[in-house]
Amino acid sequence: MRLFEFDNDPIHLPDNVATAFSELGSNQRGGPEHAMLKAQAALGGGVLSFVLEHVGDLTHRMSHHAKYGSFYPGIVRDKVDKTLRVLTNGYGFEREHEENMRANIRYRQEKDPNFDEGKWKTDLEAALAKYAAEHKKLPVYNEAQWQARQAAIFLGKKNFKAAIWALQRLQDMLADGDEGFAKAAAEYQLDDQGNLMPYSA
């Protein structure tokens, strides 16, 4: 998809709302993205690495071009669907993740006779916690953004059932079609002074 090829009819937001949404998209590319890359490096590949990347990107995709009136429902749908397939596959996500972990440990032991498995596990847990913490810092302004952010936080905490639940809520919104999802991703509330209000469930 080209940069300005949108999959919803542009929605016009007030300037302060569009700016805040676009800043959310940009901020996801900061701390949360760096934390994801560090967690991926620690994981060394595998199913958790895959879902960390694509779930973590959801808040960016649905907000970074809000000032142009686009919320990329097609890209969001693709990422939600493929991460849910991995998280809910019949083989078992946690089972596959544990197998990935054991393979990673064996590989590192073969490459480095001084490999410290305990330290590696501690560092990995810290990297996942950092991923969750960085996503938690992102301000969100509607339920779609909140569910996307929560899915990432839950993944960092390895609460996979809760992450699945949050992604399924996004999938429900996407079932309303591109325009329906775009409207959900564009929702906002202003206070009496016209200031954009953060969303909380």
Mean pLDDT reading: 94
| SSE-based structural type | mainly alpha
Helical percentage? 55-70%
Which series of helices and strands comes N to C?
HHHHHHHHHH
Radius of gyration (CA) equals 18 Å
Q: Could you describe the largest sheet, including whether it forms a barrel?
A: none
The parts where pLDDT drops under 50 for at least 5 residues are: none
From the N-terminal CA to the C-terminal CA, the straight-line distance is 33 Å
Count of separate structural domains: 1
Provide the β-strand percentage band: under 5%
Question: In summary, what is this structure?
Answer:
The chain contains ten helices and no strands. It is mainly alpha-helical.
Describe this structure in words.
The structure is a single chain. This protein has 201 residues and is an all-alpha fold. The protein has one domain. The protein has helices spanning 15-28, 31-43, 47-56, 58-61, 73-87, 93-111, 117-136, 143-156, 160-174, 177-185. Helix 2 packs antiparallel against helix 3, helix 2 packs antiparallel against helix 7 (117-136) and helix 5 packs antiparallel against helix 9 (160-174).
